[in-house]
Amino acid sequence: MVKKSVIKILVLDDEPFMLKLLGRMLADLGFIQVTTCDSGRSALEWIDCPNSPPDVILLDLNMPEMDGVEFVRHLVERCYTGSIILVSAEDERMLQTAEKLVQAHKIPVLGHLHKPFKPENLSALLELWTPPYRGEPRTVKKTYDADQVRAAIVNGELVNYYQPKVELASGKVVGVESLVRWFHPQDGMVLPDQFIGVAEEHGLIDDLTRIVVDNAFAQAKIWQDNGLHLRVALNISMDNLATLAFADYVIDAALAAGITPDGIVLEVTESRLMKNLSEPLEILTRLRLKRFSLSIDDFGTGHSSLNQLRDIPFDELKVDQGFVHGAVSNDTLRAICCASLSLAQQMGMKTVAEGVEDLADWDFLRTTSCDLAQGYFIAKPMSADKILEWISAWEANIETLIKSPCVTSADRKWNADGT
Ligand code: C2E
Ligand code: CA
Ligand code: CA
Q: pTM for the full model?
């Protein structure tokens, strides 16, 4: 940690008692460069002084003249480069929302303190402080144009990576999701969010998806011939579902590769609003009749997830990672996550939680009715040739992760509303 004596702290709170209390706490913790202000105006005057601005501001949200949110706006105008700790008696949701607001202005938030709090809580947050990065600004993500993406498709530069999906009850690896990567001759590995949108906008997504489908089905056949029965999931763009020929392509490709549709999951997301739903509905229904599984991806984030759930015969629901990671300690996320799982269960669908990033996420999900987990805690997406080795390593270590009994849907800990 950086030496406490060099960190400059500004405390802004309209209550004199709080200013005194925080001043004392900080002194006891060894912070000596502390300034206290009882209004946003006086704090800004201090910041505008030739003294260099504070490294950390302890900011009260509720103040009579200028509130904390307005104060942050003034900091943005001044290009403030330090960090903020929010301090308030508001409820947890309000504090989290305020934290997101500050982060949206690219000001680092070390965390929030809910009044009343202990010196240990304050100390733990201040330990997170690091000096601002003063090197080159981070490079902006490169964008590619339609010709470049077209060339990537034609030149065979697209490769499928695979991310494992495991059963929460047993830890068994039951499937993989194919995630496309572009190996650019100069730029190296390019992630899908840098080119899928371009492909969709310029009518290239059908050609791209066909390559992904061919590669994934060929790989599924290799695994199958090696006695490895993995369900292989593919991402399908809504734009793929605009022409009826797409269903025929997928059906024929499975036949040609020598695999059966029941081992294939098609994950569908609605990235933009579809004007005409009759084609997608027809294509997805045909694919389902042929025994392909249909999964509703990123559930809860699209334009009309509930409409889709009503109209399309999905048999799997993927709870978006935004509602999974950290759900155990966040009432709002937990309520959304558990309600989505319950909804799927009532409709007889399998459930997958994505974005399982740590042990806390994993342990939490094992107390819910969720069937499968996917995320960095289990494995990052990898090339097909790494999968076998990874499965052996995972299965050798799984015992400790499944020690506590997995709660069945009948006696699960969390209710549908996450309480
Ligand atoms: P997605 O289908 O929601 O895939 C999950 C994304 O989250 C992947 O990013 C994956 O690498 C990442 N991820 C996995 N586990 C974790 C985790 O624990 N934490 C976090 N923060 N992220 C995690 P990726 O590979 O960059 O793909 C992004 C999106 O691009 C995918 O989101 C999917 O919508 C799209 N995509 C990928 N491959 C294809 C494809 O072949 N066709 C189409 N149409 N879209 C694709
Ligand atoms: Ca997906
Ligand atoms: Ca997703």
A: 0.82
